[in-house]
Amino acid sequence: ELRHRASPWQRNLGYPLAMLGLLALTGISVLIVCFHVLELLLDDAAMPRGIQDASLGQVSFSIFGSFGAALQVVLIFYLMVSSVVGFYSSPLFTRLLPERQDTPLTKIIGNCVSLLVLSSALPVFSRTLGITRFDLLGDFGRFNWLGNFYIVFLYNMGFAGLTTLCLVKRVSWAVQAELIRAFGEE
């Protein structure tokens, strides 16, 4: 219903641009993770351990300078939003979705706990994937398992593989549906 009530500009320009933006952000994040996997294979310094003596403002946390830092911020925000959407889309947690003016206190507390866990895991998640090396307000690089090559490597490979599989599946199904609809109308 929302799609039918949308203006032609929104339907013909807004939705395709939003979809292209999501595809681009997903592709960039998978590309960065693939480069991080190559770095892991070639250099031990790519492990997501804590940064020693890197003062804020003295060392750039991105190869591409300010543009790279802005891209890292956008990708981390995208990962945050996509993890929340994925969390609430999973069959196990769809009952946890709040309802407008009809949400019991236990469900509100469950939502707060879930969002707190997701937001606490985000710095370690983005650091393990190689999207950023910045520690913000905590030294997340001191976890012992971040020094284990096999865990970090498998985590990165799992993210890259599953994200690519999901992207290909989603895009190919949409293209198949459009082709069937186009050829079915003729």
TrEMBL record:
GO terms for molecular function: transmembrane signaling receptor activity. Its main location: membrane. InterPro entries: LIMR, LMBR1-like_membr_prot. It is found in: Cell membrane; Endoplasmic reticulum membrane. It comes from the Eukaryota. Belongs to the LIMR family. This is LMBRL protein. The gene is Lmbr1l_0.
